[in-house]
Write a structure and sequence with these properties.
Layout lengths: L1 H7 L4 H4 L6 H17 L4 E2 L5 H10 L3 E2 L10 H12 L7 H8 L1
Parallel strand pairs: 1-2
């Protein structure tokens, strides 16, 4: 499965940034998404910065996206706090449990 994951990471910012204007990038991203769907894996696009990019990815069947459109990069502790608040969880006493929340 590691090889499949690495292949699907190919659909990162390099191709996402040109989705609105570059037909070759669109074709490559569609092919990667199609391959992921056929393999039964979740496809996550990285580096999504605009609504237009997200729209193209959704139309192509991409399952998940991440990037500055959603949030800037944040420290681990801040993400843990956000996840805990969204899930209504109190902070775990064991730091290993905190790490498991974001792993």
């Amino acid at each position: 499965m590691a090889g499949q994951s690495q292949l699907l990471d190919f659909s990162d910012r390099l191709f996402v940034r040109d989705l609105g204007s570059n037909r070759d990038a669109q074709a490559i991203v569609r092919a990667i998404i199609s391959l992921g769907v056929d393999l039964g894996v979740t496809i996550t696009a990285e580096g999504v910065e605009t609504e237009a990019e997200l729209s193209c990815l959704r139309a192509g069947g991409c399952h998940e996206a991440q990037g500055f459109l959603f949030s800037r990069a944040r420290p681990n502790a801040e993400i843990v706090g956000v996840l805990q608040a969204q899930c209504g969880i109190t902070a775990p006493a064991d730091p290993a449990e905190t790490a498991a929340l974001v792993a």
